[in-house]
Amino acid sequence: MSKRRFAEHPLSDWMKGKGPESEIVISSRIRVARNLRTYPFPMLATNQQSLEVMNRLTGVASQGKLSGIGQFDIYKLSELTELERRVLVEKHLISPNLAGESRNGALVLNEEESVSIMINEEDHLRIQCLYPGFQIREAWQLASRIDDIFEAEADYAFDERRGFLTSCPTNVGTGIRASVMMHLPALVLTQQINRILSAVAQVGLAVRGIYGEGSESTGNLFQISNQITLGQSETEIIDNLYSVALQIIEHEKAARKRLVAENPIRIEDRVNRSYGVLSYAAIMDSKEAAQRLSDIRLGIDLGMINGVSTQAMNELLVMTQPGFLQQVFNEALSPEARDIRRAELIRNQISQHNNHGGVSQ
Amino acid sequence: MICQECGKKPATLHFTKIVNGDKNEIHICESCAREKGEGIPGSSNGFSIHSLLSGLLDFERTGQGAKQETVRCEDCGLTYAQFSKIGRFGCSSCYKSFENKLDPLFKRVHGNTVHVGKIPKRSGGIIQTRREIERLRREMATRIDNEEFEAAAQLRDRIRELERRVEGL
């Protein structure tokens, strides 16, 4: 079987675009949860019922109803290999839940990979829209359009008082989860991050690390999302997230300025040291890779490193994940072997770019 | 901090669970969390929000004695006890079947109990109209308070028109 498109390229096309505030906000995401009125939720649906749900919802795409949005492919989860599923999870195109536990699960994915529609995850339908940079409102507009297309074709489970009914009580109401992924190295370095994150939690938003374990973040990446879905309108939810994220962006910018102003040599040392390590190391575990890549990303943003693009960093972030690594080298790898391959991959990627510049002095 | 389960690896997951004022802290390492099925966000066996939720859902039982009656969803057969254990509804009818137990839960999770957001276009026309009527009634009341009777009369006519439309549907 030839490689599927999504498995070939670490970077989804949508990630190649540059969005506003892309030095700090890597991506904006909206997820909308919906269910069909006449079927039990996936957890209790029989095989026959979940099959019908899958056919009805994938039918919306196969009948070309989404053609105004883009060109879509339909994948049944059962037809994907374990590695392919893992790659999809690492690219944030499907949830671990859909990859691992779904019955008659399916994915409807557009060419740019900016729209991924999960079927028979925890809910019958989950529409996810991704935008580069800080474009959470744009993401919601698109998700809402797609939502309307499905609503025209299927009877949603909706209650006048409770709103859109979802499997989990934490999603009921609007069914939306809005999130932004932010790179906050200066707030981490200046140890302001915990203070800011706990403040964020108090206004009904949740923060978690990405690619990290638990709430610990690797690579200084944080995802901020709404927790409340009932009793606030979509616009309120998104405006709230928007304004909080905007404040965090300002704090991060100020912290970066201060770092450079107060101790430029120290920050330069940190950036260039990581650049050196990534250029020459022979073994690299995922945690160190994420941290070093974060340093380089910061170096690029501060103009200390030329030649390497932020896009290359985004690419490496995905490529150095275990699933993608095995996809690139086309073999199953032990954790030790992965660390060696990861180092190799990063060296190659950096030396490729190095021809056009490298560390500026 | 060392994992309280195996006593070997460093604890990387820290939970604080407070139920009716009883605080319970849990510090465990990733592998113990996996084994215990508590899971980790983003991992395949996902620490589920559901296990936390069941803590929230249980509070009712610990409150007033233990008068256990079985409430069961007539459509999918899920009982309230099962729901509070897994933290997920079985079907859309569960919301009706467990109706009178849900307000405290939603209040805790969302701070609210009533949806104010988007309404489905196709099935939601009538709901939208009803909301509009409510809004107009409130506006009419303010106008009357302000003795703006002409504006109030206009609103009254508009409300009548909308009400006729709702009845016609």
TrEMBL record, chain A:
Its EC number is 2.7.14.1. The keyword Nucleotide-binding applies. One of its GO terms (molecular function) is ATP binding. It holds the Pfam family ATP-gua_Ptrans. Appears to be allosterically activated by the binding of pArg-containing polypeptides to the pArg-binding pocket localized in the C-terminal domain of McsB. Keywords: Allosteric enzyme, ATP-binding, Kinase, Nucleotide-binding, Transferase. A motif (RDXXRA motif of the pArg binding pocket involved in allosteric regulation) lies at residues 338-343. Belongs to the ATP:guanido phosphotransferase family. HAMAP family: Prot_Arg_kinase (MF_00602). Catalyzes the specific phosphorylation of arginine residues in proteins. This is Protein-arginine kinase. It comes from Paenibacillus cellulosilyticus. The gene is mcsB.
Automatic annotation (TrEMBL), chain B:
GO terms for molecular function: cadmium ion binding; cobalt ion binding; copper ion binding; kinase activity; zinc ion binding. InterPro entries: UVR_dom (IPR001943), UVR_dom_sf (IPR036876), YacH (IPR025542). It comes from the Bacteria. GO terms for biological process: stress response to cadmium ion; stress response to copper ion. Residues 130-165 form the UVR domain. Keywords: Kinase, Transferase. PROSITE patterns: UVR. PANTHER family: PROTEIN-ARGININE KINASE ACTIVATOR PROTEIN (PTHR38430:SF1). This is Protein arginine kinase activator. It comes from Paenibacillus cellulosilyticus. The lineage of its organism: Bacteria, Bacillati, Bacillota, Bacilli, Bacillales.
